Amino acid sequence: MTEVNPAPTAPAGERPRPDAAPSLRGGLARLGEARHVGLIAALVLLAIVGLVTKPENFATSSNLVSVLALASTIGVITVGATFVIIGGGIDLSVGAVMALASVWATTLSTQSYGPVVMVICALAVGTGAGLLNGLLISYGRMVPFIATLAMLVAARGLAQRMSSQRTQLVQQDNSAIVDLSTTRVLGLPLLVYVFALVVALGWVLLNRTTFGRRTFAVGGNPEAARLAGIDVRRHTMVLYALSGLCCGIAAVLIMARTTTGSSTHGDLYELDAIAAVIIGGTLLTGGRGSIIGSILGLLIFTVITNLFILNGLNTSDQLIAKGLIIVIAVLMQRRSIRTST
Amino acid sequence: MTNNPGRRGFILGGAVIGAGALVTACTSNEPAQSAATTAPAAAAAPAGGNDQPGTPVTIGFSAPAADHGWIAAIAKNAQDAAKRYSDVTFKAVEPTNDINQQISAVESLIQAKVNVLVILPNDGEQLNQVARQAMDAGIPVINLDRVFPDKLSYRTWIGGDNYGMGVAAGHYIGKTLKDKGVSNPVILEIQGIATLPLTQDRSKGFADALKTYGFTVTAQQDAKFTVESGTQVAANLLQAHKKIDAIWNHDDDQGIGVLAAIKEANRNEFFMVGGAGSANAMRDIQADSGVLKATVTYSPTMAGSAITLARLIAQGKGMSDLLEKEVPQSLTLASETITKENAAEYLPLGFES
Description:
Chain A: It is a multi-pass membrane protein. Chain A is mostly helical. Chain A has helices at residues 22-53, 55-58, 61-86, 94-106, 108-111, 115-138, 144-163, 175-182, 190-207, 210-220, 222-227, 232-258, 269-279, 291-310, 315-340; strands spanning 168-169, 184-185, 188-189, 260-261. Chain A has a single domain, classed as ABC transporter involved in vitamin B12 uptake, BtuC (Orthogonal Bundle), CATH 1.10.3470.
């Protein structure tokens, strides 16, 4: 069991399969690809809807840039969430941790040290909260759902307390933070590059390093992974810290976009992130999944919101559409798993 | 700092960059707080002998927990108003967003036999019963903003005018566009939480006022009263409409996000009107540096006025400028329009978001 399938989209099955023949592996790989094809097809379908209903608005470069910028914040969080879920866990605290990091980084005393310290502070708070999640889950033996739920509540409370429920503006002196969102390079705001960089690094970490392979192993079968000599506890802890770090990065992006830190940031991000990961073909039980899939899932959500607003439809309809998409995506996933076994 | 287990965790995490950096990044917000509203007192204090100390009065106060700058300002305004009177003992219960807890909080105030109650309910319908209990026990209830359905449940209601707020915004936008001679203007509306009656009232007032100029709302989209939702919705709306003439955004807190999205998209062909009247929005209007040209108030100073009314009612006095011997049964505050011209005058009344 030391060998874990390195293929990016077809990791080891959710159960140990020592007798898996190479041909079956190949079939799985193709199915993995097929899932991406499905996601891409869904995006193309949405794009066609956009082109038909609002030809003059949808396909403009500024609209596409806007969609990418909207996807960036939660996209970074989704990358972290993908790691945690592939590793067999769940992180419900992402939105709250991002809010806490944004508040901590925008208190007047933090702001007095300038933008660099603000960024370091956001990253440190995010990583710290993630590490605490990881400690509680790995060494405190708490169920991930409970530990991160506790963090969700506590982090939001602490964020409210720290900000006295106020919206904290990024001061004029620290406008370098806001420049992340307003400065454009080759037509794209800097924060989109941050997003792309996080996705690229996440992809490499998951698919091209031992760490990534261990993540699949730990999520697929922790006992087997332990017998294979992987320090499952430490690995799990690091996964949550990684998710926290992503929340910290997202906090910097949200500060740039909204020019504020606030305890209300990131409300229900955990659900959006988990939904995107699931639609992207990652199993909630862990052991398989892909970052590209998660990002495609997230883009589907962002494009839907964009399409609905372009067409002047209200939020309730968006929510119904999102719910339907989650159900359809998971049903299709189940079919593909059944046919592969 | 170490007596709080939650924070201990963050210090642990912060050890990554060293404890020193974390201490620097600690939680102090002092300057912002001291800059907060200090002048709610100017509002509604009736002239004449009413301000002279009278019979000592204990005022009970219950409001939702602050999850928003406006609610935070409500609590602060009430407290500041109470401090102005030497004959008032202010008894505030722990604010909560849980209906059940607010009911027991009000019950505890009834038990404590306060002279008069000021209640901003989480939900008027659901708190109606306990307010009625207070009235039945002979404690007058001042109903703040969110109204109890049963008139036997309160002595006096004071609150803002959501419909009027929409009307004020509609008139400002309608008149400005008319003066500019724009025909068929593109007018956008960014609401707060769409399912709330207050949002629907605001939108109705807005549409009605615009109609008098022959204009209609081109597109309407709801956000969630948060900065982040404001950014999201505005970024998409700006894509949907390539040329906009005016935007009304229902809430100044959410407006910070809307303005950030506008800045990011580098758009300035339109003007924007805010809502609620935060100090921050007023400063922007005063500086006249961006698209925000006005805001229509829904002022949290009403909490200060409610305390003043509670004191008068408990002391059996009327409002000395009026002929009646007793405080009126209801007071609807006018929604005022703040522009560059009068921003300086209103700034002390604005709340820090």
